[in-house]
Write a structure and sequence with these properties.
By secondary structure, the chain is an alpha+beta fold. It has a single domain, classed as Beta Polymerase, domain 2 (2-Layer Sandwich), CATH 3.30.460.10. It contains four helices and four strands, in the order αβαβαβαβ. Helix 3 links the parallel strand 2 and strand 3.
Length: 95
């Protein structure tokens, strides 16, 4: 799944940047650890461009769910809860 995700992101990188003012940085959570299952969501860390809005973030989430066919959660470095940051950064697979 990670290789498929990397391919899709590479193909859509410019569209994502232009339409959603975002760059996908890393995968974390169950997909990064390799213990995901059919009902797992895909956790992605993103950097948002200056001027991006919550609508851009939610739009990106829906765009990725449509393309990948699974539930996607997107979050920024600043939106991560303090107590989760260390584990997220240590398990992240950077794209």
């Amino acid at each position: 799944m990670i290789e498929e995700l990397k391919k899709i992101i590479a193909e859509k990188r410019d569209e994502i940047r232009k339409q959603y003012k975002a760059q996908i940085v890393a995968v974390f959570g169950s997909y990064a650890r390799g213990d995901f299952h059919a009902d797992s969501d895909l956790d992605l860390l993103v950097d948002m461009d200056p001027g991006a809005s919550l609508f851009d973030l939610v739009g990106l989430q829906h765009f990725l769910e449509d393309r990948l066919g699974c539930k996607v959660d997107v979050g920024t470095r600043n939106s991560l809860r303090e107590e989760l940051r260390a584990s997220v950064f240590s398990e992240a697979i950077y794209l």
